[in-house]
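Example record

One chain of 254 residues, shown exactly as stored in the release files.
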Amino acid sequence: MGTTQLDTVPEPKYWHLKTVLAEALDSEFAVGEILPNERELAARFGVARATLRQALEQLELEGRLQRRRGVGTTVAPPRMGVDVSSSETAWPGTGPESWQPTECTTAAPPAAVARLLEIGPDAQTHVVRRVRTSHGQSLAAELLHVPAASVPGLTGIDAPSGPALARTVLRELARLPLDGQDRSVELGSAGAVDAKELDRLPGAPVLVVTTRYFSGGRTAAVSLATYRADTCRLTFGAHGGLEISHEEEQRRVS
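Predicted structure tokens for this chain:
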């Protein structure tokens, strides 16, 4: 990577540096290759390390770079396709899925989830944790909050703990008629538990997909799915469905 004059450009230094680095990633680096350390890069481009970090963080947010524990900053592979379109009008855990249940606990939901479920802040819900993978890589971690009223048959079941209990909750939830669902998406940062599940650093950018499942005129369950922002890209399908498209697929289509 060559040097460039950054002092005369009208845009912020880190933004111009990000563009220069992106061009170098396309021409000089292979997927998985480790970048020089921050000290070397900052010296090469004649910028402060704080400016360099801003550029690297932006490239990470755009999915061009990955910061890996014990390795360093590497060139990221193409984004993976993960469909979350509204055509998936089914209860979680039914049909062919790449989600794997890992745990089930009972806890009071966060205030925002309690409002969506229209329950009191101290009400307990079954919290099913699931992980979504593709080609052996974790793409998303989900917390599914299910009020006791949505799975009344669960009280009469001698359910085990862990993944088996999670599957039991999902099975009982699927007994309800599904009236529909809606989704919203926002940018967030990974908490400690989700970061560990997704092999990311705490605070890394993520996409949070909130899904409400409706049955009998009420919200029967709420899902909070945290997707890796560096591996997923959101697009809207022809029918308004929300889906995450594979970068390579978009290149082939275009």
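Notes: Confidence is low (pLDDT under 50) at residues 238-254.
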